[in-house]
Specification:
Elements lengths: L8 E2 L1 H8 L3 H9 L6 E3 L2 E5 H19 L1
Antiparallel strand pairs: 1-3, 2-3
Protein name: Helix-turn-helix domain-containing protein
Pfam family, one: HTH_17
Organism: Achromobacter veterisilvae
């Protein structure tokens, strides 16, 4: 059965590539609970849908700060 990309879970490496930052940056954000993430067997995982929502909130927050 096909699934939507929004149902997908991403690794630290995939999120880092998506956001064009280092894996270390994503690890720090996840550990500090500044980005939506959870651990599976000691490994961080990220919901693609939640990351997209988080990006949107970051963009909206940035616009408010500039005015």
């Amino acid at each position: 059965m096909p699934t939507s990309n929004d149902d997908e879970f991403l690794t630290i490496k995939q999120v880092a590539e998506l956001l064009k930052v280092t894996e270390r940056t994503i690890y720090r954000l996840a550990a500090a609970k500044q980005i939506p993430a959870f651990k599976v067997g000691g490994t961080w995982r990220f919901s693609r849908a939640e990351i997209k929502q988080w990006i949107q909130r970051q963009q909206e927050g940035g616009k408010a700060d500039k005015t």
